[in-house]
Design a protein that fits this description.
By secondary structure, the protein is α/β, with parallel strands linked by helices. The chain folds into 2 domains: 17-62 and 301-405, Aspartate Aminotransferase, domain 1, CATH 3.90.1150.10; 70-297, Aspartate Aminotransferase, domain 2, CATH 3.40.640.10. The chain is built from 14 helices and 12 strands. It has helices at 37-46, 63-67, 72-80, 92-99, 116-127, 142-149, 169-175, 198-211, 235-238, 267-278, 286-297, 299-323, 349-360, 391-405, and strands at residues 51-52, 110-113, 133-138, 153-158, 180-185, 214-218, 242-247, 260-263, 338-339, 362-363, 365-366, 382-385. The strands form 3 sheets. A 7-stranded mixed sheet has the order 2-8-7-6-5-3-4, sandwiched between helices. Helix 9 links the parallel strand 6 (214-218) and strand 7. The radius of gyration is 21 Å and the shape is globular. Residues 1-33 have low confidence and may be disordered. Bound molecules: pyridoxal-5'-phosphate. Pyridoxal-5'-phosphate (PLP) binds next to helix 5.
């Protein structure tokens, strides 16, 4: 059964002739501080770039292809779906399917949300009060950082670029204050692809337990970790105050369904998260819940396909980087959804990203877009999406562009 009926899709619909952007004196689509620079950059460039190496969501699939994976029961649900309000926590059968992905969880330990980011924002709001302090490991998806800093005092602990983007637990321990209530992490991490080995995760949990801290992990890139054996277990499986957040937006290739979830062993906390979520929306879209259930039941098939595409694209990227050693440092694939090579060119990664968008209509993301208000981070990397069929042609364009630049 073919899933890839939309193989020609590149994911970036440009419409300006020649892919040339109008110059912006503020810089490459960088928005004023306090806003969400990544979204501003995408808005700024998406309309005039025709080739996408920015997206971190896996190649999506058409509705018809997803429905072909449905069980008879889900097909019946789909045919008879009613469009009224649904259960605010999410449909019981979908919560049960999500709970089954974790060790010893039941459906009432899971709350569904409209995408991953809604889950992160609701968890933080439910757990943090203005007097509290939180620690965030950075870089992290900026809306998550902004959610923390908008709620209480916060400290950032940067991953160490000189040690394979590893987490320095001593540094994290030093950031903990008497009022610290929560540690927010994103492992596997975007944009670096870093993850924690099991021993480091055990140490992190021991530290949180010693201080009575919640450990909230945005685990949305778990499905595309380069080595499933190496992928850290969900924090909710290992720690009574661990909260795992995940969803269908990345490795499943289904961001348009807007389905994410929170898995947490404390039902009182889940009730509080639901209270916060109720201020935003009363329930998920019923049709999305059915499609999400089909996807979760077909997880191996969907994420296997995403991983195969990502692996193929990483192979192509490796050859490209090998051909341009003066411009890029060799890069180990860490996550199959994206790569994060260091750019050595004299103009710097930010100017290079702008030039390649403007000159050949190719969208890549400079690491400055993950700039944190909590800690300094390197600005000489590019994040390159690896999950789409369109990455092959896009990498060929990048290769040709780099050849034209010549060795510098
Ligand atoms: C780490 C991380 N978390 C959350 C999100 C947002 O996910 P969703 O679209 O499901 O809200 C993204 C999107 O890029 C992300 O990279």
């Amino acid at each position: 059964m073919a899933l890839d009926t939309d193989a020609a899709m590149t994911g970036c619909a440009g419409d300006l002739p020649g892919g040339r952007a109008v110059d912006d004196p503020r810089g490459p689509g960088l928005a004023p501080s306090g806003s969400f620079p990544l979204a501003a950059y995408l808005t700024r460039w998406a309309a005039c770039t025709h080739h996408d190496l920015a997206a971190s969501d896996a190649q999506t699939l058409p509705l018809a292809a997803l429905l072909r994976l449905a069980s008879p029961e889900d097909l019946q649900r789909w045919r008879t779906v009613k469009l009224g309000y649904a259960d605010p926590r999410g449909a019981s059968w979908m919560r049960a399917a999500v709970a089954a992905r974790y060790a010893g969880l039941a459906q009432d330990d899971v709350l569904l949300s409209a995408g991953v980011q809604e889950a992160v924002a609701c968890v933080l709001r439910a757990l943090l009060a203005p007097d509290d302090h939180a620690v965030a490991v950075v870089p992290i998806y900026q809306p998550s950082e902004m959610a923390v800093t908008g709620l209480c005092a916060a400290s950032g602990v940067p991953l160490d670029p000189d040690r394979g983007w590893s987490l320095d637990l001593d540094r994290l321990a030093a950031a903990i204050r008497p009022k610290t209530r929560l540690v927010l992490v994103n492992f596997p991490n975007s944009p670096t692809g870093a993850t924690l080995d099991r021993a480091s995760l055990a140490d992190l949990i021991a530290l949180c337990r010693r201080h009575g801290l919640w450990l909230v992990n945005d685990e949305v890139y778990r499905q595309t970790d380069v080595d499933p054996e190496r992928a850290v277990p969900p924090v909710v499986d290992l720690y009574e105050r661990g909260i795992s957040i995940n969803g269908l937006s990345k490795g499943f290739g289904l961001p348009g369904l807007r389905v994410g979830w929170v898995a947490c062993r404390d039902r009182g906390v889940l009730d509080r998260i639901l209270d916060v979520k109720s201020l935003l929306s009363s329930c998920l879209a019923g049709p999305s819940e059915i499609l999400a259930h089909i996807a979760v039941r077909a997880e191996a098939r969907l994420t296997g396909r995403a991983r195969a595409i990502g692996r193929r694209n990483h192979g192509r990227l490796r050859s490209l980087l090998d051909r341009h050693p003066a411009l890029f440092e060799p890069d180990e694939p860490r996550n199959l959804a994206f790569a994060f090579p260091r750019f050595r060119g004299p103009a710097g990664a930010t100017a290079f990203a702008r030039a390649v968008a403007s000159d050949v209509g190719l969208l890549v993301l400079p690491s400055v877009l993950w700039r944190s208000s909590l800690a300094p981070l390197p600005e000489d990397h590019l994040r390159l999406g690896m999950g789409r069929h369109g990455c092959g042609p896009a990498l060929a364009i990048l290769d040709e562009y780099l050849h034209r630049l010549g060795p510098r």
